[in-house]
Amino acid sequence: RKTYRIAAIPGDGIGNEVMTEGLKVMRAAAARFDIDLDFVSFDWANCDYFLKTGSMMPANWKDLLTGFDSIYFGAVGWPDKVPDHISLWGSLLKFRREFDQYINLRPVRLFEGVPCPLAHKKPGDIDFIVVRENTEGEYTSLGGKMFEDTDREFVIQESIFSRIGTDRVLKFAFELAQSRARRRLTVATKSNGIAISMPYWDERAHAMGERFPEVAVDLQHIDILAARFVLQPDRFDVVVASNLFGDILSDLGPACAGTIGLAPSANLNPERLFPSLFEPVHGSAPDISGRNIANPIAMIWSGALMLNFFGETAGHQRKNFREAHDAVLLAIEQVLRNGPRTPDLGGAASTSDMGDAIARLV
Amino acid sequence: RKTYRIAAIPGDGIGNEVMTEGLKVMRAAAARFDIDLDFVSFDWANCDYFLKTGSMMPANWKDLLTGFDSIYFGAVGWPDKVPDHISLWGSLLKFRREFDQYINLRPVRLFEGVPCPLAHKKPGDIDFIVVRENTEGEYTSLGGKMFEDTDREFVIQESIFSRIGTDRVLKFAFELAQSRARRRLTVATKSNGIAISMPYWDERAHAMGERFPEVAVDLQHIDILAARFVLQPDRFDVVVASNLFGDILSDLGPACAGTIGLAPSANLNPERLFPSLFEPVHGSAPDISGRNIANPIAMIWSGALMLNFFGETAGHQRKNFREAHDAVLLAIEQVLRNGPRTPDLGGAASTSDMGDAIARLV
Ligand SMILES: CC(C)[C@H](C(=O)O)[C@@H](O)C(=O)O
Ligand SMILES: CC(C)[C@H](C(=O)O)[C@@H](O)C(=O)O
C-alpha cells in the first residue's frame, strides 16, 4: 500500500494557523478511509526565512522536495517584511512554474449558512469551477525599462502564450467540462483589446473545441464575463482562463459566493512528474495573524482536493479517496450550516474550534 | 457665443437606436440651457462600411473630424460581419489613441428603481468613478509569433507603460479624488504577479501620492479588488486603473449596480488638443438590434458627461453646462424611478418611449 509523502509548508501569517487545522482534518480522514499520509514540515518559504537568509527558500529546495507526492501549502507574503513580488516570485510562483503545475483548479460554491452578497441566491445556484493556466501568460518577469529617469521613460512587460501551455490547459478544461453533467465551457478572452495573445488564445480554443463536439463552448470577453459572474452566476459550469484572468475570476467567483475565505485551490501537474500543490486562495492576512481567528476551511477543502487527486490514477478514481474527499466536504457543509463559525462568518469560534469540529465530523 | 460641433457616429447595431434618443435629449438640454450644439452625422466606423470598403473608416477620417469639439459615439462591432479585433482596432481604439483620449471616465451609481444584484444595497451605497488609462498598457498589437505551426509555437504580447502615460492618468485621478468629499483613491495593481509593469505602476503611484497628501491612497491587487467591488462597493470613491484593469472594473462596477446597460463613459483628451469621445459602455448588441427595445440611458448619460466636459474650461465650470448635466441626470433618475422602462429593466417601453420621457423631463 502506497504511503503518500506530503511536504507541509505553512508559510507566513495565518498560513501557520490554518495549516494546523488542515493537518488535523487530513489525519482524521486518512485514518477513517485507510489512506497512508506522511507529512514532513518545512520552515522555509516564508518572509522571516528571507530576512534571515536573503532568499525565500534554500538553494536546494528542489532536491529537498523531490520524492514528495504533494505540497500542502499555507500562504506566503508579509509586505511589511518583504515586498510581495519578491516573496511570491521566490516561493509560490517558483513552485508553480518549476514543478510545472500548469493547472490551477478553483471550485466555487455557495454553501448553506454562508451569507451571499448576491440577492436571491440559494445553495446550488452557484457551483462552478475555474480552470486557470498557472505557469505562463501574463505572469512573467520578462521586459524592462528604457530612457530611465527621463520623461521618455517606459517599461515593456511581456506576456507569453505557448502552444503547449495554451493547448494543455484548454484540453484539461474541455475534458473536465465533458465529464460534468452540464458540459458547458466558458473561455475567458479579451481578443477585442489585447491584439496578439488573445486572438491566438481564441484560435487555439476553437481548434480544441473541434475535438470535443459534446461540450457547449462560449468565448466571453473578461469585462463582460466578470459582470456576468455577478449578474448570472448560475450560467457557469467550467470556466477556463489565462493566468491573470483566472486569478481575477477565482477571487471574484468566491466573493460572489460569499467570501474568498473559503476558496481552495489545487495547483496540478497532472502527469505527476512533479509534486502538485494545494493551498487556500486567501493570503497570509498579517492583520489577523496569530489570533486564532482565521477561518481554516479553505485550507481543509484544499486538503480534500489533494486526497481526490491522489485517488485519480490513469483515468480511474479509487473509491476510498473519493469518499475521503466527499466526507471532508460534507463535514465542511455541516459546520457551515450549524457552526461553530469563525468571526468572518459572523460567529465567535476560533480557528481550532472550527478545525476540531470538522475533524470530529470526518 | 461658442457653438460646439459634435460628430455623431452611431456605429453598429443598437448604436443607431440609442443615438436617436441621445440626440433628442441633447437637443432638449441645449435649448433649455442656452447651449449651442451642432451635430454632424457620419455613416462610417461601422461593420457595413467595412464590408463595402475594406476599412472601418475613410483614410482621411482625422481630417474629417478636425475642428469638432467631440465625438458622440454609439457602439461598434458585429462579430458575424467583421471580427471584433478588426472593427474595434479600426475605429474606437484608433480614436482613443490617435486623439490621445488618455482618460476614460466611468461613473458607477446605484439608482432607485434599478434592481441591484447585490443584497441589501440601496441608492447611495454605490457611487464611485473608475478612471481608466485609455491609450497604452495592455492594449497593444505589439508582439508576434515564433516557431509557427510547430509544437514549439508561442506568441509574445507586449504591454507598454510609459512614464508620461502612467503619470498623467494618476495625476488626473488624484486631482479628481482631491476634489471629492471622501478624498479616497484606490489604485488597481497586480505587482505580485506581473513583475515588470505593475511594480513600475506602483512606484509611480507612490511618487504621485506624495504630491497629494490629502488624498487617502490604497493600492489593491486586481483579484481582491474585483472581489471587494462585490463585497464592499461602498468603500470606493475614485478607482484608477490601467487600460485592461479599468476595462474589467468598469463593467464589473456597473454590474454590481444593476446593469451595464446604464453605464456611460467619457474618453477625454483633457488638454482639448483633439476631440473627446462620449459613448455608452455597452456594445452594439446585434441580438436585440433593430427592435427598438434597447435601453438608451447609457447613451444619454454619456451625452450629459459631454455637456459637463464642454463646461469645464481652465479649471472653472460654467454654470449652465453643469446645470444641463444635472438636469439630464435628474431626468434619468426620475424615469428609472417611475418609468417608462425598457425590457432590460422589467418594463415594456420602447427605446424611443424612454428617450421621449427623458427629453420631456429635461
Ligand atoms: C470593445 C472593447 C475593445 C472596449 C474595450 O475593451 O476598451 C470595450 O469593452 C470598452 O470597455 O470600451
Ligand atoms: C499571491 C499572488 C501572486 C497569487 C496569484 O496572483 O497567483 C494569488 O493571488 C493567487 O491567486 O494564488
UniProtKB/TrEMBL annotation, chains A, B:
Keywords, in A-Z order: Manganese, Metal-binding, NAD, Oxidoreductase
| Originating species | Pollutimonas bauzanensis
SMART domains in alphabetical order: Iso_dh (SM01329)
Catalysed reactions, semicolon-separated: (R)-malate + NAD(+) = pyruvate + CO2 + NADH
The answer on whether this UniProt entry bears the keyword Cell membrane reads no
Which cofactors are reported in the record for this sequence?
Answer: Mg(2+); Mn(2+)
Top EC class of this enzyme:
oxidoreductase
InterPro entries, alphabetically?
Answer: ICDH/IPMDH, IsoCit/isopropylmalate_DH_CS, IsoPropMal-DH-like_dom, TTC_DH
- Please give the Gene3D superfamilies that the UniProt record associates with this protein: Isopropylmalate Dehydrogenase
The name under which this protein is listed is D-malate dehydrogenase (decarboxylating)
EC code: 1.1.1.83
Family (UniProt): Belongs to the isocitrate and isopropylmalate dehydrogenases family.
Domain (Isopropylmalate dehydrogenase-like) spans 5-358
Q: Which SUPFAM superfamilies match?
A: Isocitrate/Isopropylmalate dehydrogenase-like
